[in-house]
Amino acid sequence: MWSTFVPYLPNTILPGALSFVVAVAAVVMARLGKLSEKGTKFVGAISGWTATLLFMWMPVSQMWTNFLNPDNIKGLSPVSMLLAMIGNGLMIPRALLTRDFMWFLGSSWASFFYGYGNLACLYWFNSISKEFFLAATAGFELWIGMALWRDTVVHGYSSPFTSLKELISGS
């Protein structure tokens, strides 16, 4: 992640080394019983959240690269970005149904930013047609709307925002 901004930040292994030391210390403390129950659960969730955050960083670095060097976007496949949007979007209803916030955050972020965000970059730099972009936009909006609507029906709520509030708050 750090290397994404190397022209603006110094090239160093300091963030990775610091993260490694903190992670090893947390695991050792958990194994020695020096952490509370809540702390142990937190250490157990670190790997899942780390994977999710790294997964979420991919579109940011891709769009940052596109912004710095727009010629790179010519090598980006619109069909691959559409498939990324569809594939990650297919997991949003599952995350809503099971109330898995980490899964919802990762799949939503990837759908919006990795798939749709890169399609928007492709459209902005005239690499895809207006029709392709509008069709992808309409399909994406319909899918998100349908997922929220069906989840509302399944759980017997009157508003899709109730489902989202319940998912985010964990209740």
Automatic annotation (TrEMBL):
The chain crosses the membrane at residues 12-30, 42-59, 79-97, 109-126. GO terms for molecular function: maltose transmembrane transporter activity. The keyword DNA repair does not apply. The keyword Membrane applies. GO terms for cellular component: chloroplast envelope. Keywords: Membrane, Transmembrane, Transmembrane helix. This is Uncharacterized protein. It comes from Cannabis sativa (Hemp).
